[in-house]
Amino acid sequence: MDSQSRKRTRSGEDGKGHYDFNLGENLTRRYKILDKMGEGTFGQVLECWDRERQDYVAVKVVRSIPKYRDAAMMEINILEFLGKHEDSDMHCVQIRSWFEYNNHVCIVFEKLGPSLYDFQRKNNRCPYHIDLVKEFGRQLLESVAYVHDLKLVHTDLKPENILLVSSEYVRISSRYNGRWEPKESKIKLIDFGSSIFEDEHHSSIVSTREYRAPEVILGLGWSYPCDIWSVGCILFELCTGKSLFNTHDNLEHLAMMERVLGPLPTHMAERGSQGGAKKYFKRERLNWPERAVSRESIRTVKKLDYLEVLVDEHVRHHRTFVNLLYKLLNIDQSERITARQALEHPFFH
After folding, report:
1. Which domains does the chain have, with CATH numbers?
2. Each residue of 262-293: pLDDT tens digit?
3. How many CB atoms lie within 10 A of CB 340?
């Protein structure tokens, strides 16, 4: 822990537990605050100058609220655990140190570029070229395979948690339009605050909504395959610029899955209709559109099509990519491909 970690400054908090800082001030004697890189429910990420290493770093300053402090300590333990292994740089963010400052847990990371989500959003949601999607997908699956080999489930895979290593980009022009593309394709997976070991207690709900697997929604129990489902959703989004399942309602989400991927397997419908998700079923079939929350919801689902049609609108003649997506997005988690198996798929070769 930094020897200056408990030195207090005049900066306080904003009333919600966020650290109230000023640009140019010190976060202990070692780190000078240069800019704010991001903010979330957990706290803020600040760009700082590390005087000791003479290098730029990203410091995650966690809100001074017990549940976020506890989550931060769990994330530190997992990051340090990942860092102890030979393949610790397998496209996973590296923790450099951590300290406490004015009741805030501060985690120091290597400084990386923007997330794949932020880059795409600033690029008017322009799809990434399929060759970039292939390279991103390969690295993402390598990091997921590495994490799974260590008996960890990430549980919150999404484009916001995949960062480009470099912030540099280039302009790609064509006859019809122009777009920005990353100058380098290297990425790293971040945010292990929700990660959990396979033998630990599993909460009922995990993953951000758009990337949540069907077994989680149906309350059927989840494990490593829930990460694989998220990877499938991510790759679709990168190649189309659109979320595959853009919804906030469980029944609508399940109806979207059936529209894009086909009916729920009989055994999942049977178990779901007898458990906590029984309100979504009638005679062991999805109660749709009868139980839809609105006509607009019905129209939203009807606008969708089979997966290969949705992909073909953006990427033509890539049957191997569509085949990979179907394997990643197999509704039945017991039949879903693993990260190691996915890396052997023809799409990557």
Report:
1. 26-110 (3.30.200.20), 116-348 (1.10.510.10)
2. 999 999 999 999 988 999 999 999 999 999 99
3. 14
